Amino acid sequence: MFVELNNLLNTTPDRAEQGKLTLLCDAKTDGSFLVHHFLSFYLKANCKVCFVALIQSFSHYSIVGQKLGVSLTMARERGQLVFLEGLKSAVDVVFQAQKEPHPLQFLREANAGNLKPLFEFVREALKPVDSGEARWTYPVLLVDDLSVLLSLGMGAVAVLDFIHYCRATVCWELKASILYLMQGNMVVLVHDSGDAEDEENDILLNGLSHQSHLILRAEGLATGFCRDVHGQLRILWRRPSQPAVHRDQSFTYQYKIQDKSVSFFAKGMSPAVL
Amino acid sequence: MAAVATCGSVAASTGSAVATASKSNVTSFQRRGPRASVTNDSGPRLVSIAGTRPSVRNGQLLVSTGLPALDQLLEEDKYNIYSPLLFKYFLAEGIVNGHTLLVASAKEDPANILQELPAPLLDDKCKKEFDEDVYNHKTPESNIKMKIAWRYQLLPKMEQIGPVSSSRFGHYYDASKRMPQELIEASNWHGFFLPEKISSTLKVEPCSLTPGYTKLLQFIQNIIYEEGFDGSNPQKKQRNILRIGIQNLGSPLWGDDICCAENGGNSHSLTKFLYVLRGLLRTSLSACIITMPTHLIQNKAIIARVTTLSDVVVGLESFIGSERETNPLYKDYHGLIHIRQIPRLNNLICDESDVKDLAFKLKRKLFTIERLHLPPDLSDTVSRSSKMDLAESAKRLGPGCGMMAGGKKHLDF
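Structure tokens for the assembled complex are given below, as produced in the milestone run.
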């Protein structure tokens, strides 16, 4: 997790908000550093994390996680992390007939199905365990990234339904259980295709933007490539319960990604320029 | 996967990064990840696979887990003249390094493709020839201090990709000669020629891809499994790399209709194929290069999705047939190279270089990639109109060029 980003978001692993959906969005740049941040953040906060990783392999996240101070292999072994490696599972699903329903079952179907098996997987993974003691603080679902589901033949509506079901389960339903009095969080990444006229992606992005409590948008600089400033991050809070003045706050920062951290600064205040 | 996109009529440059060409070695082929050869803690580490030949080559990153699972998408140039050349360089490097090759094409028989690979230049000969070339370019500018235009001294010298001293990493090829037959026969290669395979009765799992893609995926998966590239065959003594080359993916010859209609019935076939291929590559020791005629794809959203699913994306824009062919700015070059995407694998950062404008030219024997530089404006009697043309074209170039373009207003004193 990036300490500077925690400061900007005014949160620490100990006292993070719960029951929230965070939307990560990137336009013209790579926003995956935000995924690494949230993964290590929630693992450090002692949450039970279900990570649906569709675009990269486990070793990629693991190696970056080590730089950020978390060990994914150990987290997986002790049951804190449930990792669905999309790429590896896709190979299994496509080349061999599966006996039980597989989370990525839709790859075998010709027309757009639904994501019910994937939802069942998530639900199973984040179910509270009846062991009598609450080992983990609250459940978290992390998805990287949702736009890949569109490339794999799912319609935008099916993906929105999936998110809706997950939200109902992760953010609210688990609250009702006696053992888990805390709500869970969700973090999803969607690419903004910009002017590529990807209608399905736009529907997905707009639909999620209206549902989220926090939107982090990583954008490339409008003027092009710069070696010292890698992009711009827009943070938008949406708090429907607050009075109108505090309802939608938005901040913009520029960032530079380094080997083990990301440094943020106000626009135009890059250390390279000053 | 690196996608090479052809952007025949697209004028605006997307300003992609020229990743490694400036720092890397190869004149004849552009290298991915220059730091991949050095065990640097910031970039992906080079891990030598126990017992194999020097294996890391253009397009392959050996990351610290030892998986060179990278795939490159090469967006073809409009008339498909230069992209097969890069494709062949990739395969030729595989043969020279002793890797296993898998060549798939719907248009040409893979055996024919292999016959046309460029010949490698072996050590002493190549040193001499390149010394000549480099010498010619370097002498005028060598160490003469500039007196009048002293500001230009601060700019980096014209970034010629010089020959590399270490022969582990990359070889040079002579584009005018063919690879010797013995080398080809000594190599281990598999070919997939679609018209032959489509009629065979391989048992195919039901899948929603077009039959051509399904067959190709199965073929690749069989090879990976049988030859142990995914670690499934532990008694294999020497681990090796599988280089996969797929030509003209997405063209109608593969049975896909994305080049014909905007919203065809098979619109997800290509992206699903790429996803499963990516999965195969990530779980095995292989690297893949794909050439794709993106200028023919009707639906732009698909191009964006393909780019997301690939690791490295390189676009070739040749000047043939476009207005730039006669533009005096580009008279030294045959085309531009746009690097649209480079991967961040196992890392937060990626190896972006500062040079964003790259151009290529095919000399008689060499295929060179250089930083785009504008020819000096030497003539006294240049007419007003051509000066304005230069200014217009110069505006479209990226910020990396070090020339002052003549403004529209021509002040006469």
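Residues 175-182 of chain A have pLDDT under 50 and may be disordered. DSSP finds ten helices and nine strands in chain A. Further analysis is deferred to the final report.
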